[in-house]
Amino acid sequence: MFIRTRKDGSPKSGVRRKEKMEEIKKEGRYGRIYKQLSELVLKSNNAQARMSTIIAVLHHKMDYFFWTGFYMIEDGKMTVNAYQGPVACQILEKDKGVCWAAFNKNETVVVEDVHAFPGHIACDSRSNSEIVVPFKNKMGKTIGVLDVDSSTKGSFSETDAKWLEKILELVYL
Fold first, then answer.
1. pLDDT tens string 10-51
2. Positive or negative torsion for Cα 57, 58, 59, 62
3. What's the domain range around 142?
């Protein structure tokens, strides 16, 4: 957890409590979203339909999600897929940026300040923080990523990572 401090390095009064309350609110919201998505995805066996539904619900229910979408590997290229938000970069330069970092490491990457991330790809200058979750097929092979951007620095936490990883499992029930 990131703690905001005064200039002298001491914690600001009430910051920890506020951050803890925010995490509790996130947990509750994600729990409700997960329940809703668990029911919605059963209406179709089509992975693309499920992905699109997940993106739409997340984007409109999480007020700090500025851009929400999938990038999939096609012919060795990371290509935009279903998404909500401003126009996206269609193909991401190989092995550059947060999406490729998460894909190559095969683990969720949370970036508090994208402008400090080496090689960050700025598809929209309003993006300030990001979380990228590897997306796996039925056999467990990573085939892409879920990418979520926020216009506010430090928006994402372990709570987001845990729930987004769980939500992605709904695509291939």
1. 444 555 666 777 889 999 999 999 999 999 999 999 999 999
2. positive
3. 15-168
